[in-house]
């Protein structure tokens, strides 16, 4: 068995970052579950991997959707923000934390 098999692939893997993005809906009536489903679909299309979600109370009944995801470091995170901003019912999307993931 050759010990070097797969070594090249392992060494050329892109680093992964953990991104936390805050998604603000247009109103208190906006369905956050629908936004979550569409956001996760777009994250996957952009080669990211959704990890978890949180709901963050803002004020006066308004809640933000927080998504934590794995993202290839070589990919521009602006693509992520722009894709999420394009979802119906989204007022804004902002990356609030980026950290290099370690395994």
Largest sheet: 4 strands, antiparallel
Mean pLDDT: 88
Percentage of residues in helical conformation: 25-40%
Mind telling me which CATH architecture this is?
Answer: 2-Layer Sandwich
Q: What is Rg? A: 16 Å
Strand content: 35-45%
Number of strands: 4
The CATH homologous superfamily is termed: Ribosomal protein S6/Translation elongation factor EF1B
Distance between the termini: 26 Å
> In the CATH scheme, what's the topology name?
Alpha-Beta Plaits
Total DSSP helices: 3
Strand order of the largest sheet: 2-3-1-4
Order of helices and strands: HEHEEHE
Broad structural category: alpha+beta
**Overall geometry:** elongated
The stretches of 5 or more residues where confidence is low (pLDDT under 50) are 1-11
Give the total of domains: 1
CATH top level is Alpha Beta
Structure summarized in a few sentences:
This protein has a single domain (15-100), classed as 2-Layer Sandwich (Alpha-Beta Plaits). It has 3 helices and 4 strands.
Task: Characterise this structure.
By secondary structure, the chain is of the alpha+beta class. The model is unreliable at 1-11 (pLDDT under 50). The protein has three helices and four strands; from the N terminus they run αβαββαβ. It has a four-stranded antiparallel beta sheet, with helices on one face. It has a single domain (15-100), classed as Alpha-Beta Plaits. It has helices at residues 7-11, 32-45, 77-85; strands spanning 16-25, 49-59, 62-72, 90-100.
